[in-house]
Amino acid sequence: MFNLILFGPPGSGKGTQSERLISKYGLKHLSTGDLLRSEIAGQTPLGLAAKSFMDKGQLVPDEVVIEMISSALDNNPQAHGFLFDGFPRTTAQAEALDKLLNQKGTSIAIVLALQVSQEELIKRLLNRGLTSGRSDDVNEEIIAARIGEYEKKTAAVADYYKKYDKVVFVHGEGDVDEIFGSLSKEIDIRDRA
Ligand code: AP5
Ligand code: MG
Predict the structure, then answer these.
(1) How far apart are CA 141 and CA 138, in angstroms?
(2) What CA–CA distance (Å, rounded) separates 193 from 188?
(3) Which residues are within 5 Å of ligand 2 (an ion), measured at CB?
(4) Which atom of ligand 1 is closest in space to residue 61's alpha carbon?
C-alpha cells in the first residue's frame, strides 16, 4: 500500500492536484471536506452539526472527522493506497490516523506540503467563491478565519511528520501541470524505494 497526505492551507490546490494524483497512482481519494459537504447535502445529523463550524471557517471537532476517516478506511478494503486531502488537520488527528493505519498493517509514506503565499490563497478562494456556492468561500472574513485555523492548529501537523522525516515541501504557485510534475517526482522517488 502507498498512502500519502496532500497537505497545505485552504486554497493551496489540494483538491486540484488530488484529482490528478489519484488517477495517475490508482489511489483512493479521502477528502474530509468533501465527505463533510456530502453529509451536509444529505442533511444527516453529522452534516448538520458540522455545518455550523464550517460556515464560520472553524475546524469540525476531531472525533467527528476521525470517525468519518475510520469508516472510510473500513469501507475500502480493496484500495491500493489512500490519498488524504484536508486530513489530518490537528496533531490529535495525525496520531489517530497513524493508529488506524497501523491496525491495518500500513503507514503514511510521504506528506507532500504545498506552499502558497497568503495573498495568493485569498485571491484564489475569493475567485472560486464567485461560482462555487461554497458557503465558506463567500467573504474575506471567513477565508481569513480558515487560514487562521490552519496557522493555529494545522501547521503543527507538518512538524509532527517532520519527526519521522516524511515531509516534502513543494512550491504550489504557478502552472497546475508543473506543480503536478513536482509532486509526481517526489512520489516516484519514494514509490520505488
Ligand atoms: P476543505 O474542503 O478541506 O477545504 P480547505 O482545506 O479549506 O481548502 P480548499 O478545499 O478550499 O482548497 P484546496 O487546497 O483543496 O484547493 P483547491 O484545489 O480547491 O475543508 C473545508 C472545511 O471543512 C474546513 O474549514 C473545516 O471546517 C472542515 N474540515 C475539513 N477537514 C477537516 C478536518 N480534517 N478536521 C476538521 N475540520 C475539517 O483550489 C482552490 C482554488 O484555487 C480553486 O478555484 C482552484 O481552481 C484554484 N487553483 C488550484 N491550483 C491553482 C494554481 N496552481 N494556480 C491558480 N489557481 C489554482
Ligand atoms: Mg479541497
Answers:
(1) 9
(2) 8
(3) 14-15
(4) 36
